[in-house]
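Project standup — Tuesday

K.O.: blocked on the structure for the chain from last sprint. Re-posting the sequence here as requested.
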Amino acid sequence: MTTQMIILNGGSSSGKSRIVRCLQDVLADPWLAYGIDSFIDALPARMQSSDGGLVLADDGGVRIGSDFRALEAAWMGGIAAMARAGARIIIDDIFLSGAASQQRWQKAVAGLGVLWVGVRCDSAVVAARETARGDRIPGMAVSQANVVHAGVSYDLEVDTTHTESLACARTIAARVS
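H.V.: unblocked you, prediction finished:
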């Protein structure tokens, strides 16, 4: 089956966004990129700190509410519809619920050719990246580094601990059919 979507999953500061930009450069055809951060930015401000929406705790933990899940399902369905209409799509996501997050995507993209990619990075490295970025709650990257991969099945995994984003993108691009 032709690859219509590439879905990258990894914790905060693991290097997904850089890999996505590199993928757009190395893949022969044009690919659209969408990320969970842009979805969150599109939410009404009141949902970014409410029980029904998204709550970022002081320790870096994240709580997701039912209103968030409803809009997330619609977003996923919309992304899948674009792929069904012929667009090639790269997704940059954080599977906070591990396998349950992947199942939500699987439901939305049923019947599409998807390359599932795990993006890993050592906890000490993501913590340093998080500090350097300055736009994340301290502890978020370390708290997500492993939990996002729990029970998730991948076609391919890359590790940005010692591998540059471009090399990871080339590895992923080689698997796109």
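K.O.: great, moving the ticket to review. The mean pLDDT is 93. The CA atoms of residues 7 and 75 lie 14 Å apart.
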